[in-house]
Amino acid sequence: MDDAQTDMLADSVARALGDVVTARGTVEAEAQGLDAKAWKTLRELGLAGEGAAAMSLEEQAAVLEAIGYAAALVPYADSEAMARWLAHGAGLATNADEVLAIALASPHALSGRRIAWGRHSARTLFSYEEGGRNWVAVMPSADLRLANGANLAGEPLDKCGVDRAQPTEVREVVDDFSPAAVSQRGALCRGAAMLGAARKAQELTLQYAAERKQFGKPLAQFQVIQSYLAQMAGELSAARAMFATALRTAQGGARASRAEAAAAKVRIGQAAHIITALAHQVHGAIGFTEEYSLQLWTRRLWAWREEFGNETDWARELGAAMIGLGPDAYWERITR
To answer: Looking at the structure, do residues 83 and 198 belong to the same domain, yes or no?
Structure first.
């Protein structure tokens, strides 16, 4: 799919979600941990099931950005962009209508583990390394005796009630579907959604600054507010550029470069930190209220920033990898 087709896909998803997702509806859906209308809409668009497994990472990133922009409470990232992809890579059969959960953990060491979207999933896939080999295990989510929980975004993050479990199937997988590959894909999936959420937070801030008046003129006419708005735009542009670089390394179905993926998650996380801070600075107290919608997107940015590795995690790995290249290769790597 070329850039024009990817843009058309993103626009179609954005318009479809725009028809069914509202800020109030998302807040109310948090009680159940799922926006059923939004999830049904994505399924009707053919974005779940085997169709999802056949999509490229670039296409799924476009869908995820639209989901982040809409603040849709749906399990697309974990179920379709990740678990469905992993099941396909492991040669595991899936049902088109089932929600899948995914965990970077061994089924033999589950104490205290939390499973995103666990309560809504039919089965959970576990990605782990054992004996120097990569494994994927699958089992019914009901066997995990999950206790309901949630992340800061209001998405289900349920705690396992068992210390170990007996999988129904176990498959060895190649490095392209190893735990490292899963964590890398997870970082990129969260990064795509974060770009959408950051863009929405920026738009809300621009709108508020233009409409809210202080001392007889709009906030946007004050120089300090203008500097905030400019900084937000710069951060979003820089994050988007780094993410695009990571996606370009994954063209043709290839696995994205780990270094570029790490840099993307770091840069998007840094941008999220600044954008959320400035958005709330401009809005003041109203931005933190449930009645005002900004909190939907800033809560998502704070939650997703920590998932599948935050800036510190990926920066340490990226730094170690660059140092390991040696002085000559390091310079060539960062300037090519």
So the answer is: no
CATH at residue 65:
1.10.540.10
User: What count of residues does the chain have?
Assistant: 336
Same domain, yes or no, for 290 and 183? yes
In a shared domain, residues 123 and 41: yes
- pLDDT, one tens digit per residue, over 242-260 is 999 999 887 655 566 899 9
What's the average model confidence in pLDDT over 200-221? 95
What are the two backbone dihedrals, phi and then psi, of residue 156, each rounded to the nearest 5 degrees? -55, 130
Tokens of 206: 């621009």
What token pair was written down for 24?
A: 């109030």
Measured CA to CA, the distance from residue 165 to residue 110 in angstroms comes to 8
- What is the residue range of 140's domain? 3-177
Q: How many helices (H) and strands (E) are present in the chain, helices listed first?
A: 12, 8
Tell whether 13 and 162 lie within a shared domain. yes
Q: Which of 293, 82, 297, 290 is nearest to 193 (CA)?
A: 297
Write down which residue in 157, 177, 197 finishes a domain: 177
State how many domains the chain has: 2
DSSP state letter for 99: -
207 and 265 assigned to the same domain: yes
Q: Contact at 8 Å (CB) between 26 and 71?
A: yes
Residue 136: DSSP 8-state: E
Tell me what percent of the chain is helix, strand and coil, each rounded to the nearest 5. Answer: 60, 10, 25
The pTM (predicted TM-score) of the whole model is: 0.95
Q: How confident is the model over 173-185, as a mean pLDDT?
A: 96
C-beta of residue 145 within 8 angstroms of C-beta of residue 161: yes
